[in-house]
């Protein structure tokens, strides 16, 4: 009989996307009889416990990313680079301490750079192995890609949440060229599964992304919905607000939904408006739903994904600056055509890793 493994999950907590996409992995590990520890911020722990009440948790906070209105995202990140380097080493030190405390066999880090252990088999999850910068920074795409590869070299294996064959959901971002660390495409990761449902909800907006752009976009939606008298439900994605509900004219705001509630809202919405964060796109693809996607301003990854998926016919995109709610609710995108490739396929890869550790 195979022994019970102790598995430590360390998802990045810049928003909710990393922990929500890790839920199926966590559930699989629990169902296989292994001890699972999730280390993260309070909001990460809340979502993890909601999905898997039996897991162990450890508070493991990192720095919060807040982008400057004036400098933009890239300049803001560069100015914070010294903080990121300190955070990298602090994360690694804390991970080693947790691995020692719990006698961890396997560490799974979702894009949290420093969460690897020299004493445990360490796995890194990322869909962004390549970068697509803009403007004067465009010729330097190779620099962040090289830096990322050096980080991934610290790990034993890299899991890529995307399709192995083209067309891929992440486009060129998930290409593993020049990556020397063993890597496996594991298909898309989502809590949701495709179902059929009547479209009874008018327009559902999934808010997300860093401040100040998140609140700016919410104000745009509220103002336009009330001016144009369009019923809208805004799902704010704020797990620390006790699932509050408020109404402002034609707009209903829900601070947070459970996974099942969110799945139902997305299935029954006539129109979905969302950021082009990759985890949100995987959820929509898993449900075979299209949407109007609005990238966070100045965030190259989201802007590339929005442009690529619009050109590919899977989604429709609008910029935040030029956003028009009436136009968005009238746009009709092509239906997603990923066929049966959205079904989870990560189990075989995890089992191979488990077999190395038994």
Characteristic terms for this protein:
358 residues; alpha/beta; Rossmann fold; 2 domains; 7-stranded parallel beta sheet; 7-stranded mixed beta sheet; 11 helices; 36% helix
Can you describe what's shown?
- The chain is an alpha/beta fold and 358 residues long.
- It folds into two domains: 6-190 and 342-357, Rossmann fold (3-Layer(aba) Sandwich), CATH 3.40.50; 201-330, Rossmann fold (3-Layer(aba) Sandwich).
- Helix content is 36%, strand content 17%.
- The protein contains eleven helices and 14 strands.
- The strands form two sheets. It has a seven-stranded parallel beta sheet with strand order 3-2-1-4-5-6-7, sandwiched between helices. Strands 10-11-9-8-12-13-14 form a seven-stranded mixed beta sheet, sandwiched between helices.
- A hairpin with a 2-residue loop joins strand 10 and strand 11.
- The longest helix is centred in the first third of the chain and has 22 residues, at 81-102.
- The termini are close together.
């Amino acid at each position: 009989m195979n022994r019970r493994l102790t598995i430590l999950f360390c998802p990045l907590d810049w928003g909710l996307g990393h922990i929500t996409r890790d839920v199926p992995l966590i559930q699989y590990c629990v169902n296989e009889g292994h001890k699972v520890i999730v280390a993260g911020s309070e909001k990460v722990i809340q979502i993890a416990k909601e999905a898997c009440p039996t897991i162990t948790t450890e508070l493991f906070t990192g720095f919060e990313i807040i982008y400057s209105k004036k400098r933009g995202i890239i300049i803001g990140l560069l100015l914070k680079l010294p903080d990121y380097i300190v955070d990298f080493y602090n994360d690694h030190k804390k991970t080693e301490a947790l691995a020692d405390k719990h006698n961890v066999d396997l560490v799974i880090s979702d894009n949290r750079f420093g969460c690897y252990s020299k004493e445990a088999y360490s796995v890194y999850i990322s869909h962004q192995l390549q970068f697509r910068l803009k403007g004067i920074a465009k010729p330097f795409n190779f620099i962040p890609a090289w830096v990322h590869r050096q980080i991934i070299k610290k790990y034993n294996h890299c899991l890529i949440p995307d399709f192995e064959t083209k067309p891929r959901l992440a486009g060129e971002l998930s290409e593993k060229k020049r990556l020397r660390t063993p890597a496996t495409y594991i298909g898309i990761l989502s809590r949701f599964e495709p179902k059929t449902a009547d479209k009874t909800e008018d327009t559902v907006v999934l808010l997300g992304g860093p401040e100040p752009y998140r609140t700016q976009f919410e104000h745009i939606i509220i103002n336009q919905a009330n001016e144009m008298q369009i019923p809208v439900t805004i799902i704010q994605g704020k797990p620390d607000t006790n699932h509050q509900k408020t109404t402002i004219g034609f707009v209903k705001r829900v601070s947070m939904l459970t996974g099942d509630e969110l799945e139902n809202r997305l299935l029954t919405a006539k129109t979905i408006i969302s950021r082009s964060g990759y985890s949100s796109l995987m959820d929509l693809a898993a449900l075979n739903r299209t949407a109007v996607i609005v990238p966070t301003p100045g965030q190259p990854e989201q802007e590339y994904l929005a442009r690529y998926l619009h050109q590919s016919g899977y989604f429709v995109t609008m910029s935040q600056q030029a956003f028009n709610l009436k136009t968005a609710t009238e746009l009709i995108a092509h239906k997603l055509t990923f066929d049966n490739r959205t079904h989870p396929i990560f189990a075989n890869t995890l089992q191979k890793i488990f077999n190395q550790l038994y």
